[in-house]
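U., I forgot to send this yesterday:
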Amino acid sequence: RKSSSGRTMADIPSLLSSPAASTDEATTPGDDDESDRVLVRTARFDLCYPSEKRDAAALQMHNDPTTMLPHLAFLTPMSSGALVARRATQRRGHADGSSWSVDVVDRATRALVALSGFRSVEAAVAEFGIVVDHRWRRRGCLAEVFDASTRHAATALGCRRVVVATLASNAPMRAFVEGRTTLRWTDGAVIENKEKGLRFLKYEAALVPHPYRGGARCGSSGPPTTTTPDVEPATEESASWTATE
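Result:
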């Protein structure tokens, strides 16, 4: 089956060997492809709509053991068919307001450095998630993307609370959440996934009030592009995250 861009699922593996597999095209995002628009800009990154042209790079990230292990073992390896379906769901989430997933692109190199955003946006609650390429750990990527995303949730999506769920064994992500003292987190509630033998901790916090009064409903697309103030690179270790699938 071909997608709207003419790409079939069989095309995805072949793209991994091409130079474009790990970098975005060196063009101004959105100039020739409305579906590849930049949604939020930070000091270093463009948070972009999950465009089909980065599906191959996303597949490569999901199948990189250094990036995915040990904390995301249940999401790797990932087949091309599963990746295409996952990304299609993320794109539908933008259309119906049920989620807000983004490709985090380094503005200087156009490389895909993380997969992030909100796995779900419902009842004024945004559930944050991120997978950071191992080469960008300990470089403040997690902090920069988290701060920009939660600001966007509060100002453009109309959300009032943020949720982060992480494996109980994911010490780096737990340390990041618990160290983000600008938000008042609830204690991590335990979520058991007995089928997969996984134990998650769920953190939740109210988003800091913001003077924005646009009245956008939770899940609405809001302004097409939000430029955030420069975010100073943080010292926290970037860590991979996902919620229960």
